[in-house]
Amino acid sequence: MSAALKPIHIDEFKIVIKSITDAEIALLGKQIHNSIDRLERSNFIMQALLQKAKGQEVKEAFDEEEFDTGEQDEEDLKVYSDSIRENEIVLDNLHKRVEALDDESLNRDITPPTKPPNVKPALKKVEVDADNDIIDSNAPNSVFL
C-alpha cells in the first residue's frame, strides 16, 4: 500500500488499487476525503483572508481570531493566491482518485468508500412490559428506594 501513498499519476493509481484489499480501499477513501475536506477548508480560509486583505467584503463568516495575520503585504496576497491555485490542482487529482476508488469498488461489487449506503439502518425495537406484574430492573417504570 505504500506505493499508493506516494504522489503517482492517476493511471498508476488505478493499477495500484486493483491489488489492495477491500479494507484498504475503504481506508484510502477515508484518507482522501479527509484530505479533500482539509484542502477545501484551507482554500476557504485563504480566500476569505485574501478578500479581507484586499478590502473586499467576506461573503461567509470564519473565525478571524484564529488567524491573527497582522499587516499583510503584496507578497502575502501572492502566497494566498498561489496556494489556492495549487490546492485546486491537488483537489482535482484527489477527486479523480475518488472516482477511481468508486469504479474499483463497483468492479468488486462492494460499497464505495466515498458514498454512504442508501439503506438506513433499522431501528432496534425495544419491548417493555409497562404493567408491574413482574419485577424488571431495566424497565423504565422501575423505581428502587
TrEMBL record:
InterPro entries in alphabetical order: TMA17
One example of a Gene Ontology biological process annotation: proteasome regulatory particle assembly
GO molecular function, one term: enzyme activator activity
One Gene Ontology cellular component annotation held by this UniProt entry: fatty acid synthase complex
Protein name per the record: Uncharacterized protein
Native source organism of the sequence: Kuraishia capsulata CBS 1993
